[in-house]
């Protein structure tokens, strides 16, 4: 089969097309999927940059949509349209997926849309509800609101709670997208200090939950923006890893919980439990388009390198998809 | 009544004995307690140092034991022996206590022992189980193992779980006390690097939960000692507030949750819920002496100043109690 693999030129890892990759062998408890679309994720870029093969698989890609072509599952027999996380191997014509990670793909959604759902919506669900403990009448600040996880988190917070939603983004175009999804307070971080705006909008109380992809450069402002008993969830560190002078007294006095998380390295059991709860809470909402994946661009599988460069440029609003032409 | 109050000489706060303090007025939902014993806590020292009156009460003290002398509670009628948290007002002959904070004091325990239980055992319970999510077969590192919260946490972990218990302390006498409570691994932090010992003892896996009273000076070693999905609970900062160079990548890669907490400023509802669960899980264990308060010293109420100085010197193993002679 055709697949996009990491290849090494000395210590430098790059992507190469392999037209004769082996179709993966389905094990017990797995589905073999004929992949129709896969999505590009930052974890794929990190793999290329560091040369570390996630789960040892030379084929990149952690989420796909497609059709089941080999299965022993009564719930997902051959011919079923599915989407879900995979342990690598997504940038390919065929991939294996644990049954516990598979989600039915509604007829209302295209395969490109299906590939745009698992990683960002599951991450958003996990961070908002499992880690952030967001309650119905609380408030949440979502940084990088126009990103894949950002747009998913906005929609989930909007549809599953009555929480007041704050976002930051870098441009009016990105903020318009956030507004269309139902955000209450839009903050262009180039034009104003987000923590001052949040303190003002919450009458000094701060928000209950913050989803942060930025890290070090936002640390002080995040702590100023968060309220008592708040949860700060770190899911990326695009703005640097080292924070100088962290004041632990603030953590104690505000009783703040800071959680670092990554979805990809977690266990299959964790992902399966998350997937199950997510499907129960959201499948109806996807079917009636109250939740919808946001796609920025679709590339052919063979253009994976360009797709990754596009993601690295931070210009996308929503997901970047690789379409597999069979 | 006689009470120990904060008094101000210019900006400098000190303790003074007031022989004509007003007996507090019991409100609906409260008990009036004839106090037999109160305990000294670090929060009292902070109040004296900063001159901030906790909850506006000039009388210090956040936990007492005694006898109910006015009540509308069927569960705690007049004459009942009780112990529990109070919102200030503990260093006195009488104090009011919310019914939700009251715990029955078993006949097997003295009033001095009763006053030694609420703050440290509730804090230890909250941090181990509500924040630290300690599971039966996990592992926990308890810093300052011979302190009030430390000795309570060791006993609760030992009696309510099968977790492997690590402690640090500064002397062999303190470590002997910890050993008598059932600790598995004793670490004298003056003699060895605790993180190296923990990495070695856990075969590189690290511990699941850390209870830390020290803060900044232990930050790096705590992060080295903690395992994947671990919980680091900060309940004090005796070792400094400012951490230089916090690496957020460690939080993400190990998926660490850091929670700052203080019990005293929390809401009455929170304390009542915690008290209720604590009583359900522990009252039998106190009655048969499987859990026991550790008392270091008992002072007369009038010697509150000396009692606080003794706490400030960090020499105590277990609680410092003020006994009220009626």
TrEMBL record, chains A, B:
Which GO terms of the molecular function aspect are on file? NADPH binding; oxidoreductase activity, acting on NAD(P)H
Q: Which residues form the Enoyl reductase (ER) domain?
A: 10-322
Q: Which CDD domains match?
A: p53_inducible_oxidoreductase
A Pfam family annotated for this chain is ADH_N
Which key words tag this protein in UniProt?
Answer: NADP, Oxidoreductase
Against NCBIfam families, the record matches this protein to:
quinone_pig3
Q: What is this protein called?
A: NADPH:quinone oxidoreductase
Q: Which organism is it from?
A: Enterococcus silesiacus
